[in-house]
Structures are given as C-alpha cells and as structure tokens.
Amino acid sequence: MIIFIILLVALTISIIYHLIIYVQSRINLNRDTKFIRNQSIDYFPFVSILKPLKGVDDDLEKNIKSFLELDYPNYEVIFGFHSEDDPAISIVKNLCETHPHANTKIIIDRNEIGLNPKINNLNNIYSFCNGEIIFISDSNTRVDRDFLKKIVLYFKDEEVGLVSAAIKGTQAKNIFALFENLHLNSFTFGIVQAATAIADIQITIGKAILVRRKILEEIGGFYKFKDYLAEDHLMGLEVKKHGYKVIVSTQTIENINERWTLSKIINRHRRWTLMRLNIDPFFYVLESLTNSTLVAIILIVAKSEFYMIGIGGIIIKMLVDYYTSRLICSRLKFYHFLLIPFKDLLMGLIWFSPFIYNKISWRESKLKVVKDSKLLPVY
After folding, report:
1. pLDDT tens digits for 275-316?
2. Domains plus CATH for the chain?
3. Could you tell me if 339 and 177 are in contact, meaning their C-beta atoms sit under 8 angstroms apart?
C-alpha cells in the first residue's frame, strides 16, 4: 500500500505540473501577443544572422530561403562552413545567387577554438558580421516573413540583452520525427515557459537566440563557451549575470524535422539529458516527475488492480500535451497525440541513460560531459 500511495502522489504531482504548464504557457502567449500588438513596427536595428552549417538538414533549401526573404529592411545573413566539401555549400550558393537583394556572405574556415563544433563555426564567422544585434540560428530552422521585425521589438528596452524564441517542431514524415515534434511542442515549450515565469529560471535554447553585440563581447564572446555543450543556456545565464534582462519569448521559429531514425532521436536526447543532469542535478531528478506516462505505467505494473487510475493519468497527459502544443502549432492533429505514451516511454528510458554513461558522439568527436556541461575529449 505504501508503494501505491507514493506512486499515486507522484502521478498526481505530475498531472498538476502539466496543468500548470498549460495555464502558464497560455498566459505567456497572451502577454506576448498583447506586447506585439501594442508596439509600433518602427524599430529596425541592423541584424546579423549567423548560420553555422554542416551537411544537408531536412528541407534545407526552404529553411535558408525563409531567412533570405524576411520582411525586414536592415539585415545580413552569414553562412559558416567547416569544410570546402560540405554538400550544403552548393545549396546556399544557389540561393544567394537567386536572391541578389539579400546581403549574404559565405565563410569556410577550419579553425577550431574548442570542443563545441557549433561554437567553433560561430566564432569563425563572427568577425565578418556588422550587426548591432546578433541572431544565432540553426540550419534546420525556418521563419515567417515577419518574425524578425516582431522579435527585435523587445530590444527597444535598453535593459534587454538577449531574446530567445520558442521552438515549434513541424513537417514530420515518419514516426520518430513525429516523436521529436510532439516533444518539442509540449514538453520543451512548456518547461521553458514555466521555468522562466514561475521559478525565474531562464532556459535559453539555441535554435533562435538574439543578443546585443556589445553584450556578447562584454561577456567574453563565443570563446567563453568553446568547451561547453549547453552554450546557449550558459549564454543566457551570463547575460543575466551581467545585469541584463533575458527574454524567453513565445514567438516561434520552426524546427524542421522530417525523417528521423531511432538512433538519431536517442543520440540527440542523450546529449540533452547529460547536459541537464550536469547543469542542475536536483532539477533533473525532479524532472522525472514530469513524465506522467512513465509514472502511470510503473503504477500499473506495481499495482495492477488500480490500472484504471494509471490509464486515466495517461489520458489526461495526452490531452494536456495536445492543448499545450496547439498553443503554438495547429498542424499536429489529435490522432498524432495517441503516440504520446510511446514517445514518453522512450524519453523515460533515455532519462536514465546519463546515470549509466556520460559520453557522447557529436559530429566526428567522442566527448565526456561533466559539471555545467563542460566537454572533455575522450582519447
């Protein structure tokens, strides 16, 4: 009976957490919508969009094209490559040629300042940018035409140092890509919004980060994060530590995930779990309670006579995830969320992995992740 009570309390806490996530996410979305609506679109600081690339991501051509067709008068796009043999170079060159009005640069540089390959690339192209605002954006992202002129409005406040956008996973064409998008649009979106508003914990995710150039230099530039896995999150913490506001916006950027394999989703989320565990072990352990499905399954296995309670918990979790996701992405249909229990079970199993093995394979490197997500080479 004691085990049943513990599991029942855990499941109740988990369900309450997800309801809070939904309510807070809706509050944040309404707040940001009102903020944008009350602003006059007359602020156009020069923006440098930094695009570190390696290989051809899903629908790369359309992703890049969206950045070259932004409805914004004052920006440049700088593409960074580590190798002359990168197959994405020809795609980017063709797009630049067909968009002659766009202010673009292509930089190929093999220099490495540390163990984080994304930071190496960003550091190599940073010296070529001229913007007052630096917009760091991954190659597997896509934006609406009015994205930039809306999100820079936060910088009208001189105390704002960094703004990050919410991630919206889209375009899934197989089950594992759908798993990823379901996770991004419910778990990731929700926990980022709630952590900021309720616990004053800024979680900065690097799919779309805008930071004032003078502040980036003040905190030590990209060099400061050269040997860390969570360079995006740590950048947000450093900006806040230096006395500036960090805004976690509900303005969305699309993360295009079309065709994923099981190994890709496991490798991606093993990196993320290792990162979260080494940044805040206590918060990571508490995170286990957010997986209502896993808690419910353990309850059903431990006390099968109460299986209806477990099934009820799983159904509530599916419904809350559905409504949370609908706040930012209407493309996912209700029947997609019938996969939530299977996705949650997979994520639950991955959650245990960093306690067993703390090494990752990232690009061509094998690395060990330690405190604060610092990277160490594995020989």
Report:
1. 999 999 998 998 998 999 999 999 999 888 888 999 999 999
2. 1-379 (3.90.550.10)
3. no
